[in-house]
Write a structure and sequence with these properties.
The protein is an alpha/beta fold and 349 residues long. The protein has one domain: TIM Barrel. Helix content is 25%, strand content 23%. It has nine helices and 16 strands. The longest helix has 14 residues, at 158-171. It starts with a strand and ends with a strand. The model is unreliable at 1-8 and 46-51 (pLDDT under 50). Bound molecules: iron/sulfur cluster. Iron/sulfur cluster binds at residues 105, 108-109, 112, 114, 118, 150-152, 182.
């Protein structure tokens, strides 16, 4: 691991960072999040020697397994680049568009599916880029919702984030702004009163967070989520189904029931994308279906997320249970929203 320091980055004093020369996905973790690793003898790095991987460490500690890229994997598994209508704006779905405002994160998740962009050095959105985005949105009224993402948009200082939101509002006062961030989970001190009141003032806004394990739901996380909710910003959560982290019904039941108790709606449980070097994290679709079957018997509809898959080749997001057409020896075959069939590999469990 090559240690580098992103000096001048906001919050850099809170972060440990470096770059994995093989995958080019940076290494980075907030001191807060690495502090959640249990001190109980579980091996943070690898399950190879018979010890269990710590579910927190497994999400940010790079391993050798990432260097094994399957032929069907890609740095852009859901086809962002194909739908990039102007630099940093991905318009894939009819009424919403994704704006990549910043390429930095407080934790670089080893399962990240946006590794073609995340931490690659494009940094923050520039003024000319934002103007081009605004021109597109002005001419495309069908877009009702803009997802502020990256990277993590909350790695921007408040002033810069608010300036982006204000510019979008100026051109389209009707837009719903969705802030997609891991900050409440990985650096809850970032969720200040000034931040949430500034977001609320620029609403309507939603926040979508990314929690994968009940150990992430600390008192600091709960306080951060409640700060957002108290300002009138609804919060929902997306979880990625990750082998060795949360691939069992007990863990996910604990996660989803705790989230819903504090007012955070479990929204999606994602089947792993075919991101380069992430096969060790993926469960099979049949394992995911079995977990959902158990969860359905234990959780209310409010606490039960949709088990979803972003189809390979930019096929779009589908609910696994209703879109699965059949199993072939080497692939699950799904019906895409466009009526075409899409194949997702049947890897060994
Ligand atoms: S916070 Fe999101 S964008 Fe950043 S590394 Fe994790 S999954 Fe990727």
């Amino acid at each position: 691991m090559e240690r580098v320091s992103f000096t001048g980055e906001p919050f850099s004093q809170e972060l440990e960072q470096g770059v994995d020369p093989a995958t080019r996905l940076p290494y980075g973790v907030s001191r807060y999040y690495s502090g959640l690793v249990a001190d109980n003898g579980e091996n943070p790095q690898s399950a190879a020697n018979g010890t269990r991987r710590d579910p927190i460490a497994a999400q940010y500690v790079p391993t050798e397994a990432e260097h094994h890229v399957r032929p069907y994997e890609d740095a852009d598994p859901i086809g962002d680049r194909r739908y990039m209508v102007v630099p940093r704006l991905v318009h894939h779905y009819h009424d919403r568009a994704l704006l990549l405002v910043n390429d930095r994160c407080a934790v670089y998740c080893r399962h990240c599916f946006r590794r073609h962009f995340t931490g690659h050095g494009s940094g923050r959105i520039t003024k000319p880029e934002l103007e081009a985005v605004c021109r597109y949105l002005e001419l495309t009224p069908q877009v009702r919702e803009v997802l502020l993402s990256g990277g993590d948009p909350l790695m921007l200082p408040d002033r810069e984030l608010f300036a982006v939101m204000d510019r979008l509002r100026l051109v389209r006062s009707d837009l719903l702004l969705r802030v997609c961030t891991r900050m409440p989970v990985v650096l809850p001190s970032r969720i200040t009163d000034e931040l949430v009141s500034g977001l609320a003032a620029r609403g309507p806004a939603w926040m979508v967070i990314h929690a994968n394990h009940p150990r992430e739901l600390t008192d600091a996380f709960v306080a951060a989520a409640q700060r957002v909710l108290r300002c009138g910003i609804p919060v929902s959560n997306q979880t990625v189904l990750l082998r060795g982290v949360n691939d069992n019904a007990d863990t996910l039941e604990a996660l989803f029931s705790a989230l819903v108790r504090i007012g955070v709606r479990p929204y999606y449980l994602f089947q792993g994308d075919l991101a380069a070097g992430t096969a060790h994290f993926r469960t099979t679709v049949d394992e995911g279906l079995e977990i959902m079957r158990i969860l359905r018997s234990r959780l209310s509809g409010l606490a039960l997320p949709i088990y979803a898959l972003d189809l390979p080749d930019g096929g779009g997001k589908v609910p696994v249970e209703s879109a699965l057409l059949r199993r072939e020896p080497d692939a699950y075959v799904f019906a895409g929203p466009d009526g075409r069939e899409y194949r997702y590999p049947r890897e060994k469990a």
